[in-house]
Amino acid sequence: MDAALSDRLAAVDARIADAARAAHRDPHDITRIVVTKFHPVSLVADLYALGVRDVGENRQQELTAKRAETGGLDGLVWHFIGQAQTNKARAVRAASHAVHSVDRTRIADALDAAEGDGILDVLLQVNLTDDVGRGGVEPDGVEKLAAHVAGLETVRLRGVMAVAPLDEEAARAFERLRRSSDAVRRVVDDAHWISAGMTGDFPEAVAMGATHLRIGSAITGPRPPRD
Question: What fold is seen in the domain 3-220?
Answer without folding.
Answer: TIM Barrel (3.20.20)
